[in-house]
Records
---
Amino acid sequence: MRRYLVAGNWKLNMGPAAGRELAEGVSGLLRGRELKGDVLVCPPYVSLPAVAEVAQGDPVLLGAQNCADQAGGAYTGEVSAEMLAEAGCQYVIVAHSERREYQKETDDMFVAKIDLIHKAGLKAIFCFGEVIGERKSGRAQEVVKAQLEGVLPRLEFVNAYNTVLAYEPVWAIGTGETATSEIAQEMHAYSRQVLAGVLGQEVADYMRILYGGSCKPGNARELIGLPDVDGGLIGGASLKPADFVGIIDGAEAAQG
Ligand code: PGA
C-alpha cells in the first residue's frame, strides 16, 4: 500500500507573515489527528524559515518549489538543494509546467536538479503532463512517455522513496477543469507502466504518483481513491486552510 501525499504548491503567493499564518491554520486543523499519509507545504523560498517554525513534520512537512541545477558558485539569484535541506525542507518540486513554460527549463536541467536534491538527502517531486493541444490531437500518452523517459533513466540515485511523480495535465492547472476519473486513472496507470519499463516493476509498484490540476475538497476523495493515484499536488486550494484540509480529509477517506 502506497502512503498518500497531499502537497500544497503555494506558487508566488504567501510572504513570510501570510505563509506562517496559513501553515498555522493548516496545522491547527490537523492537530491531534493521526494521519494515514503525508502532508507537505511548499512556500516561496523567503517564507521557508517562517513556515519551518510551524511545519516541523508533525504532521506538516516542508518543501520548496524549485532549486538550482548547480551545487554552488557564481549563479546569481539561485538557491541550492543543500541550502534547502539546511532550511528544513524534505521535498523539492521539479519540472512544474509553469517552469517548463516560463523559464524554459529542460530535461537536462531536471536531471541535474533531481540528482542534487537526492545528494542533499531530499525527495524530488517530478512533474509532467500534456497541454490541451497534445490531448486533443491524441498525443497525451506519447508526450508523457517522452517526459518520463527523458529524465528518469538518467538519474543517478533514484528510488521509490526519494522520488515522487506528479501527473499534472496542463489544461487542468488553475482552470477549474479537473481531469475526469477515467482520464486520471488511465494516465496514471499508463505512467506507472512507463515507469516499470524504465526503472523496473518494483520501483513502479512503490513510487507514488500524485494528481495535480484543480483538485479540491469536492473531488479529492474520488481522484485520490483511484487505484493509481497516490495523492495530490494542490495549487489554488492549498492557499486556504479549510480547503487544503478538506483535500486531506478526502485522501484519508480514500486511503480507507
Ligand atoms: P491548481 O494547481 O491546483 O491551482 O490547479 C496545481 C499545480 O499547479 O500544482
---
Amino acid sequence: MCGIVGYVGEQSALDVVMGGLARLEYRGYDSAGVAIRNDSGDLTVVRRAGKLGNLRAALEETDPAELSGTLGIGHTRWATHGAPNDRNAHPHVDCTGAVAVVHNGTLENFTELREGLEHRGHTLSSDTDTEAVAHLIEERYDGDLADAVRSVCRELDGSFVLVVTHRDEPDVVVGARRNLPLVIGLGEGENFLASDVTAFIAHTREARVVDQDQVVVLRRDGVTVTDLDGDPVRGEQFHVDWDTAAAEKAGYEYFMLKEIDEQPEAVRETIGGRIDSHGRLRLDELAMSDEDVQGLTQVIIVGCGSAYHSGLVGKHAIERWARLPVHVEIASEFRYRDPVLDPHTLVVAISQSGETADTLEAVRHARRQRAWVLAVSNTVGSSIARESDATFYTRGGPEIAVASTKAVMTQLVAMYLVGLHLAQVRGYRDGDEVRSHFRDLSHTPDLVTEVLGRMDPVRKLAREIAGQERVLFLGRHVGYPMALEGALKLKELAYVSAEGFPAGEIKHGPIALIEKGTCVVVLAPRHALTSKLVTNVQEIRARGARTIVIATDGDESVTPHADDLIRIPDTKSLLSPLLTIVPMQILAAEFAMARGLDIDQPRNLAKSVTVE
Ligand code: M6R
C-alpha cells in the first residue's frame, strides 16, 4: 500500500527520491517523508502528513545543506497503524537518530515488540508498528547494518518491505521483504530500491526482483542479496520496456484522463501477435498442454474490485465459447469458504498490480489444492505473477490513477482471449468461428476510439447531474458486471452512493430507491435481452427516475424511454463491455471533477491493496 524508494549513487538523493515518490504516490498519500544522509554525515529526516505537496513545502523551508547528499530513502504512506499525521509519517528513527526506516506492510507481533522495547528503556514517539523496527535495529547494530536487519527480520511476524539507512554507513542502503514487493534498479555507479519499477525507470531499465525473506545491500558500485541467514542468493535480472512517458501526465490534468485515452492502444497491444501462421489463436502464456486443457472440469476466476468485474465478463465468454462451468469469486472470500478445487480446475487470478494481498492469498490457496493457476496481471515480476503457474501479462503500460481504466479494459480482452483459446483447444468452436470472434475483437480498438470521440455530451451531462447523491446502474447479461463497474468508478471517485444491479432484479427490492429525479444509468447495448431491459426502464421511469441510457447506434427500441441517450457503435453483444465501460469512466471522472475532487487520488484509497 505504501510506496518506498531507496537510492545510493552520485546524483542528489533528494531529487531522485522525491522523483520516485511522485511516481509511487498512487500507492498511498496519507503522508510522505524522506531521510537524506547529508554531506556532513548526519541523517536529515523530513516528513509531513498529507500528500507529497506538503512534504515539498516542508523541504523548501529546510536548510539545503542539510538535504544535500547522495544517499537517501523515502516513503509515501497509506496508514495502517496510527492516524495519518506528522508524528506517524515515515521515516522513523531510533533513540539516537542514527537509524532511519521506511516500511510497507503490517507487523502482527507489533504490540509485543513495542512492549519489550519500552521495557528495555526505548522511547517510542509514534503509534506505528514501523518505529519498533528502528529501535530493534538500534539494539542489534554492531557495525553491520545488513546483519542487524537480518536479525530483526527473523523476529518479525506479518508482511513487510523495509528500507533502512544508518548514519555510520555512508554508502549503504539495506532493504528486506516478506510478502510485499521490492524491486532493485541496477544503474551505473548508482542503484535503487523501490516498491515498483516506475520509481526508477527514468534512471535505469535494468531491474531485479527481491524474493521472499531476502535482504538486499545496496551500494553505489554494486548490490548483494542474501537470505535471512546471510547466505548469498541468485536472482534474475530483467529489462523494463515501459515507456517513461507512460508514467508521466503528458499534458493531461490527471493520469486517469490520460489512461482512459490510452485504452485503444492498450487493447491493441494486448491482442497483438495472437494468430500464428496456421491461423490458430495462440495463448502460449497459459502453459498448459492441450490434453490438460481438454481435461479441465471447471474454471474459477478470482479478483477484487474492478478485476472481479472483469472476471464476471470472463464467465460469460468462457461459458459461451468453451462450454466450461465458470465460478467467479471475490478473492477476499475465496479461501475462507473451502472451495472445491483439484488438478482439473483452472484458477484465473486477475490483478492489475499483481500485489493485491487478497488475490495473492487466493492464488496460494489454489496452488496448495493443486489447481493450475493462471495470473492475469499488468505488472511484470509481481508477486501474483511469480507465485502462479503461468502468467498472461496484459500490455496496458503503467496505470497510475487509483481508479482502474485501461487495466480493466485489457483484463476484459484477456478474458475473451482465454475464452477463445479454451474453446479452440477443447474443440467447441472450429477455427473459422474462433477467427471470426478474434476479428471482431481486433476491431474493438477502433470502436473504443470512436466512443472516446463522442464523449463531450457525456461530460456535459456529468456536470449537470454532479449534485446528485445517489446514482444507480442497471444492466443485464454482460451489462450487469459493467453496471457494477460503473457504480464502483462513481463511488470511488465522487464519494456518492452508487450501486449496480441486474436490471431484472430491481423489482425485487432496489426499485424502492427510485424517487423523482433519481439518476439511473442503463446499459442497453443491442442484445437478445434488450426488449426485457426496455420493460425494466419503463418501470423505473414510471416512478420518476431520470434514465441515462447507453444504447447501440441505430437501435430505437430504448430511445423513447431515455431521458439522456449515449450512443455506442455496434459490436457483438458479448464484446459490448469494451465500449459501454468508456462513457461510465468519463461520467465518473467528470462528475467527480465537477465536485472539485482529485480523481487520481480519491480519499482513503490506494492503488495496490497489500493488506488483507
Ligand atoms: O491491482 P488489482 O487489480 O488487484 O486491484 C484490485 C482492486 O483493488 C482495484 O481494481 C480497485 O477496485 C480499483 N480502484 C477500481 O478502480
